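This section describes the prediction task in plain terms. A model, or a person checking by hand, is given the sequence of a single protein chain and must write out its three-dimensional structure as a string of tokens. No templates, partner chains or ligands are provided. The sample shown here is typical of the held-out split.
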Amino acid sequence: MEINTLKKEYDLKKEKIKQRLKEFEEVSNQGNKAIFEELCFCILTPNASAKMGINAMNSLKPILYTGNLQDLQNALKSSGYRYPNKRAEYILEVREFIKNSLQFQLKEKILSFDNKDELRDYIVNNIKGVSYKESSHFLRNIGFKGYCIIDKHILNCLTELGILESNKRPINKKQYLEIEQKMKGFSSSIGINVDELDLLLWSHKTGEILK
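The expected answer:
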């Protein structure tokens, strides 16, 4: 992929990308329920497509707050989701943690952080099934700026552009942050906001501007 080609693609997609980012900002305004559901969606997306995650969430929503483990697993299975058993365990554990530790005041907890890096660390350290990629994904999807969602599509694009030497996935915080800084540096060099660049690269590989 050539940088000029990427810039042309951005010109074609930028209005849709900006609109999608604006929609992400609205999620926080909808309150704790919407924020929790977005967190669950981000738990469901690793090694699964965004569409699979959306379908799985639609199946989960009727029993998300009341269902036991079996209920959650059955709902995920009914949607055709690939990892129903383990991810249902994660979601149940997250639900109980937020209920018991935060009294479901997830938005208030998130807004209590002044430092966005500490906020991401908190989510990684306290929410089972969430790594730096999923935490960044969640925070971006509820309207926070400046996080890179370094998935396989982003890694492949950055490698093709020569920003990275390899598309190997980061296995720890240090590696993740190093790649994120390289992506931010590239963003500055081509004059495309990093949040918009993330969606641009993802859509370049998938053909869609989803979430």
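For orientation: The CA atoms of residues 101 and 143 lie 24 Å apart.
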